[in-house]
Amino acid sequence: MAPTPISQNEQLTLYGLTRYPTYNDRQVSETLKIKMSTVTAIKNRLKRQGLFQTVRVPYMYPLGCEIVSICYARLNPLVPHQTMVKTMSKVLGELPECVWAVTDPSNLLAVTVSRNYTDIKRCVEKAFNQFIENDYLEHDTFEMTHYPYGQSAFFRYFDYAPLIQFTFDLDFKEPGKPIQTGLEKMDVRHLTRIEKKTLMGLVKYPDLLDNSVAKKIGVTRQSVTKMKKRFETEGLLNALKIPNVQALGFDILLYIRPRFNPQMSVKKKDWQKNILKAYDMSRWVFIASTDLEAGLVVMGKDYRTIQNNIVTAVATYKKMEFLKEYPDIKFMSLQDTVVLKNHDYAPLLEKVFADTE
Hints:
Elements: H1 8-19, H2 25-32, H3 36-48, E1 52-58, E2 67-74, H4 81-93, E3 98-104, E4 107-114, H5 117-133, E5 143-148, E6 153-157, H6 161-167, H7 193-204, H8 210-217, H9 221-234, E7 237-243, E8 252-257, H10 268-278, E9 284-289, E10 294-300, H11 303-319, E11 328-333, E12 338-342, H12 346-356
Antiparallel strand pairs: 1-7, 2-4, 2-5, 3-4, 3-12, 6-9, 8-10, 8-11, 9-10
């Protein structure tokens, strides 16, 4: 896929959209110091070109889910990729727990959210076992890493703003986002019927204005606006703007599993924060961590740059004695990647709500 060229103002606006996904055009304009009419025109043009999408992510922990898992497998080169894509799309499309999945001719990578380990066994592993039975996966390459809510830190969840800023060398100075450990306790939320309906509508129709969402789900606009604000304030709903990295010319996706030195005497929150502060991780769009290991999704435009980034990062962390060993790194070709599941949270939310009624 040939990259879509975008101007400097378009690059800056795309950064603003990813960095401030809940801002309206006026707020983006004031923050970026670009005329509001320019921001609106660029945003609409980028959207028409398919260069970004809006996603609303529900925080599933207080709604009854306990575990985020990253699933990886190496694919069998003897089976045509298109054959595998057709089956994998169907199987994962019918798996509510799978919220994001991609594949290139050699690899399969997915993120799942489950209520408990029973669901992982009964639903997630069962789905991936179908791929094993079809001989789609290389022998003994399927792996699942679990990140239990409350015991894991989710420092970055598909946050592309640092990547966009670094890639386009944008000279935009602002205070950095505060580091969130993701370890803070959040009480279980028992939603009312209308709250469930509204949260589902907001997740299912992320591009619609509150008035249009209200018409879709049969509640008033005032109720939608009020509950959306409350959900966002409580941390129950998080808006994202996801750029189309393939159309923007990104070539490489890395899935990395560093394992940490268990002899570290520093407390978990402290050394996890130190890891984040010790090195420029602008290319890292997903970071989840437990005491002993982490799962990272890293993207870049060329092999040499991203390889140097990883080598330097590993050297930095080895000097700090954070790493137990050299991390396991899987390379994927973004230009050959097929998106099987694209931040689809509504089926999971629907299943959880149905099981709690």
